Each structure stands twice: as structure tokens, then as C-alpha cells.
Amino acid sequence: xxxxxxxxxxxxxxxxxxxxxxxxxxxxxxxxxxxxxxxxxxxxxxxxxxxxxxxxxxxxxxxxxxxxxxxxxxxxxxxxxxxxxxxxxxxxxxxxxxxxxxxxxxxxxxxxxxxxxxxxxxxxxxxxxxxxxxxxxxxxxxxxxxxxxxxxxxxxxxxxxxxxxxxxxxxxxxxxxxxxxxxxxxxxxxxxxxxxxxxxxxxxxxxxxxxxxxxxxxxxxxxxxxxxxxxxxxxxxxxxxxxxxxxxxxxxxxxxxxxxxxxxxxxxxxxxxxxxxxxxxxxxxxxxxxxxxxxxxxxxxxxxxxxxxxxxxxxxxxxxxx
Length: 322
Fold this sequence. Notes:
This protein is an alpha/beta fold. About 45% of the residues lie in helices and about 15% in strands.
């Protein structure tokens, strides 16, 4: 078994030799070869010329000479190869930088829809590419476009393209250096989830998940005066003056942050198995909004001495709908 574990152990990367090291190896091997040739010459002919003896000595050292010349050739070729690789990498970086500039230029042509689509597609290539620095810059440019064009409404023809590009980059673990703020005074405005940002604030409007839409909550999202429906949620300090309908509440409260806002309204929400964290005030009465518990009772976490009669705070149901 020990042998199997040893065989399955991942192998680390081989040490890499850079251009300057190959250059040093080539020079060193050339000098060593020159010294070896001089030494062999004196060893063979140092005691005068003797045809048979000198021939045997020459034949004896010839393989070593061939090996040394091969070593010099190998080091020199590797040095030249590293130079070519560096030049190719530099050309590739310059090409990606030009691609970033071209994408930004296309994205700025707001009067030309085709150019905007091309700009988003161009920047997405960089956002999911292998250059981490340029990927973040590409995400920043797309995020700036989203902030500038969709701050008060997501009813935009380029919304799906831009959000999808950022989501694909976020799936690789990349985060743009941007905080986005969406705000509206129109309650009919419906928001979509934006991934890949440091923070996204939704102020006003509504966000629908589950059967109602495709919105999924993320830890970096903040909500104020927003209506949320059909989602699985962890209620904490991120929500202020929000309304929830037909949501499944997984947790309520926060161990490390402030308590949830008191101005939260719940309607037909399922608190089955909800984990109430650090509840230290009077426990809310959720019965008014048809909020319920089905089979699995909630739990108290972080303040176990605090006891709750769940029937005085929730509708206890034998069926999730009645």
C-alpha cells in the first residue's frame, strides 16, 4: 500500500533553465572543451611524435572530444532556442495587448451595435485566456461598460453577452477590480446576477430565481430596498429593507457580521431546517406572512441557551403548501 501511495504521488515541475543560464552553460562548455583539447594535444604530443602510440592516444580521447563538442552544440542550441522562445512570448504578449486595445476601442463605439458585440467577444478571449494580468484588465473594461450602460436597468441588448463573458472568467476564479452599483426607483425593474466582481450592489428593483427567473445569490452581492423571490438564501447583514417571497431560508443571522436588518419582510417563505445564528434579541414572529416550517424544525446556533417555541413564530405544516 505504501508503494502504491508513493507511485500515485504527483510529480512536481522540473526545474527550468532560463536564457542567461543556457548562455553561461554554452560559454562554460566551450571554454572547458578548448582546455580539454589543449590538454589532450599536450598529452598526445608532449613526449614527441610517435605514430603508433600517438594514434592510440588519439583514438582513446576521440570519443570524449566528440561528447564535448556535442555538449557545446547542445548548450548553444538551447540558448538560441530560449532566445527564440522569449521573442515569441514577447510577440504574443504584444499581440494580446493590441487585442485589449482593440476590444476597448470597439466597446466604446456605442453607436455601432456590431462593434460593441465584437468588442465584448474580443475582451472575452482575453478574460478567459492564459495571461492573468490582461484577463483582469479585460474584465475591468467589460465591467465598466456594464456600469455605464446598465446601471439602472438590465433591459439591454448586450446584457447577456457581457454578463456571460464575465461569468466565464469568474468560473476560472478571476475577479475584476471593480465594484458595481445597480440602482432604480422603478419596482418593476428586474435584475440579473453579475459574477466576477468584488462587490455588486442591487438597490431597488427585484431579483427572481427558481421558477420565477435565473437569479442566484452570491456572497459578494448586497441588497437594499429589493424584492427577492424564488431563491435559496442566507439572510445576513447584506440585506437591508428587502422583501422576500417564496424563498427558502437556509440561515438567518451572521456569526462574524452585524445582525440582519430589522426592516425585512417575508411572505410565503420556507424556514424548514433554517439555522438561526447568534440570535440575541427578541425572536421575530414570522407567522403573519404565511411563513412556515415543514417537517424539519429550525435550529439555534451560537446562543444555545436561547429557547424558542417554533409554533409561536412559524406556521407548522405537514405539507409544504398548506
